[in-house]
Sequence to fold (226 residues):
Amino acid sequence: DIQMTQSPSSVSASVGDTVTITCRASEPITNWLAWYQQKPGKAPKLLIYPASTLRSGVPLRFSGSGSGRDFTLTISGLQPEDSATYHCQQAQTFPYTFGQGTKLEI
Amino acid sequence: QLQLQESGPGLVKPSETLSLTCTASGGSITSSSYYWGWIRQAPGNGLEWIGGIRYDGSIFNNPSFKSRISLSMDTSKNQFSLRLTSVTAADRGLYYCARHLLVGDIFDLWGQGIVVTVSS
Fold:
């Protein structure tokens, strides 16, 4: 199975800051990477797929980049509602695997 | 707008079978564009994909679960179900049903999740 490693595991930032979360795959996955946002007590929400394409309705302060093994999720101009856990998922190879999540506190 | 809702017992005894059902409302689960799947999250762990089923009965499961998984679908009730046999404490956690978009192999709609505890 492809292992997905996220860093950091948690991060604290202030409103207006820019935060970058990284996700590394144990083998190349071209750009078949998704990012999800999970707010406390809520289901995950798909934000970005593949790698750098925002889903409809996702604020433009979110951006994704990367290919191969290394990917980043950047949130610019943090807002209070961005407080959540962010998960990456590889969609290159079955079985689909997720990172362990990054908790963002605002 | 389609919504998914998990249901089932929140408490299962060790070695017994966990049975969960996901009911879709506001849309149909008979689209050929999707699988309907299950994902879980153990306490302190990341998300883990369990498996998925399509309206035509085609199924694919995470091999890590070996033969413990059984997936089924009742299109007349707009429901799909998961059975996980021989549960242990390692199977406790939050179980989500989700819509698996075949173009991309991503999960674009999730239920709210159901907490499963394994205890005698």
